[in-house]
Amino acid sequence: MTLLTYTVLTDPAPLEASAAGQQPKSTGTVYLVITNSGQQQVNWSTIKVDVPVGNGAGDLTPASDLNKIKPKGEHRTGPGTPPGTPPGTRTPVPLQRVQGSNSFQATAPVGKRAFAPGDSMVLTLENVTVAPTAGPVVLTVTENGGSKSAKKVDRFAAVALAKTAAKELPPHSFHPNNAMVDAGTNVTLNWQGSAGFSYQIMYPGAPQPVPVSGGSWSPPAPKRATTYILIATDPATQQQHFLTTTVHVRNPELDTLTATTEIKTPRVQGTTTNWGLTINGTGAAISDTSGVKGTLTAGDATLSGVATEYVKGLNAGEGDITFASGGVKVWSTRGSNDLGTLYADGMQARYVEGPNTGEGVITFPQGGVKVWSAGGSSDLGTLYVSGIRTDYVSGPNDGDGDIRFLTGGMKLWSALGSNDPGTLYARNVNGAASGRSTPRYGWRPTGGNYYDITVDTSAAGFTSCPIYLIALGGDFYGEHDLRTTAIYNATATGFSVVLRWRDGVPMTLDEAERLGWHIDWVGHVSS
Question: Which ranges are annotated Basic and acidic residues under compositional bias (predicted)?
Fold first, then answer.
């Protein structure tokens, strides 16, 4: 018989056995209350509590959970405490698991072995995982101590506590391990409930409910927001419980999407490429994620406007249209520098110009066309053709001469619509030609009272050096006595002449140019 009295209490009371397969397992706290109900002081050394370990009816906790128990002890003085220590004084008592065993032992602190009448001590085992089988559990207590009338030896006691059967819990806490994932990311669905229930999960795309067990299950990785339904059936009553949870997807993949009002998004992208349609503040752009522009392919397109760098044919080698500042250019093929050909039933334009600087221009006045020597020039150009068939040819200005084509010849008239014969001007007629140097230009000072000029006669087409007759032309108002010297350096294509004045009055080149002085000439080559 022990010298001290032992009573066991639990929280909850009674303890509830853990349900098989249930998470979390049932836990509780065991209190071993020790009192000295005798008349003598007990001097104790150790008090050891043996905990039955296993999953049976007489076991307190599974062996795998023994190390989860948190032990602690406390001694409280009572009314029989010797003078010097007030009643109700609390002193911690070391309580530890005995290494390699299923026992917990309290050891009396040095100098505090006295257990006076009315004293008490509580040994607490917290966080006890309760074994899964219901039934009574007996704890064995080994007391080592003595008193004035009893030797210090080991004495034994047994205290019992109850474990009730686990309650059948309806399923609850159905949830995914991640409620928001990217498309194609695996998720795990978790729930709690009685292991005796049967479980199934339904979700869109599953042809029938999927049997599950164990409190968790991983469905196929969701591609879009998916709601899962857990169906738990009580085998005894066939009552069904339904729980739902939803996994949301940041970038869902949809088979089809129908919107009755509108869809607002800054970008639409393909599933197998990073090319997509980006919608900006003024329109849309087809590009990859780095901003490189892509290609729009369509059978037909109706647009109010297109802004693009170029337009090309669908097939290799077909023409290409680029857009230069203020116009367009047609190239023979994409990437080529060779100009292409524009094919059209008709074309309306203010002018047509050659592709290179200085090339001729054709303008379209009312009722006809004009050929100019270059863009922006007022000098008439030359029309090169293999032949022209026309009723007449007229000069560009009012009053210019007119040529009519008759059977076997032609006639020259002084003006369009006139009956007055005109004058034929040609390079040379029967070896004779005339012309003049450009007024104001070509004069060169040669020193003293002399200027010279070289006159170009190549337009006359002389085949040999002709006889030249010359005269000085321009404005004269008697200020200078001017003379020309004899012709020199005469050839089939030109000659030179010197101008001098004899009155000694100074004259400048600016004055000669201002007065428009020039050389009129006639040349003749005898046959």
Answer: 67-77
Report residue 115 as tokens.
């257990």
Residue 440 has pLDDT above 70, yes or no: yes
Query: Per residue in 153-168, pLDDT tens?
Result: 999 999 999 999 887 7
Spatial contact of 121 and 73, defined as CB atoms under 8 Å apart: yes
Instruction: Enter the pTM of the model.
Output: 0.41
Please name the residues in contact with 448: beta carbons below 8 A apart, sequence gap of 6 or more. Answer: 500
Contact criterion met (CB below 8 Å) for 329 and 341: no
Is 400 inside any structural domain?
A: no
Q: Are residues 237 and 183 both part of a single domain?
A: yes
Is residue 301 included in any domain, yes or no?
no
**Does residue 267 or residue 63 have the better pLDDT?**
63
pLDDT in tens, 44-97: 999 999 999 999 999 999 999 999 999 999 999 998 887 778 888 999 999 999
Q: In which domain, by residue range, is 95 found? A: 5-164
Distance CA 117, CA 37 (A): 6
Exposure letters 115-133 (e unless 16+ CB within 10 A, then b):
bbbbbbbbbbbeebbbbbb
Same domain, 157 and 176: no
Side chain identity at 215, as an amino acid letter? G
User: Which of 264-289 are b and which e, b meaning 16 or more Cβ less than 10 Å from the residue's Cβ?
Assistant: eeeeeeeeeeeeebbeeeeeeeebee
Strand ranges in 343-449 using DSSP code E only, listed in sequence order? 351-353, 361-363, 370-372, 392-394, 402-406, 409-413, 432-436, 444-447
159 and 176 within one domain: no
Q: Is 451 helix (H, G, I), strand (E, B) or coil?
A: strand
On whether residue 102 sits in a domain, the answer given is: yes
Q: Give the number of other CB atoms < 10 A from CB of residue 412.
A: 14
* C-beta separation of 3 from 119 below 8 A: no
Note whether 205 and 330 are same-domain residues: no
Considering the domain architecture, whether residues 207 and 238 belong to the same structural domain is answered as yes
Q: Are 59 and 196 part of one and the same domain?
A: no
Structure-token match 């080559």, residue found? 525
Tell me if residue 464 falls in helix, strand or coil.
coil
Contacts of 507 (CB under 8 A, 6+ apart): 449, 480, 501
Domain count, the chain: 5
Which of 164, 196, 224 marks a domain boundary?
A: 164
**Which of 181-190, 234-243, 350-359, 395-404 holds the top average pLDDT?**
181-190
pLDDT given for residue 72 in this prediction: 97
Q: Tokens at residue 343, please?
A: 């094919």
Instruction: Let me know whether 176 and 156 are in one domain.
Output: no
Long-range contacts of 342-346, Cβ-Cβ distance < 8 Å, separation of 24 or more:
none
CATH number for the domain that contains residue 134: 2.60.40.1510
CA 356 to chain centre: 43
Q: What is the pLDDT of residues 446-482, one digit of tens each?
A: 877 788 899 999 998 999 999 999 988 887 655 566 6
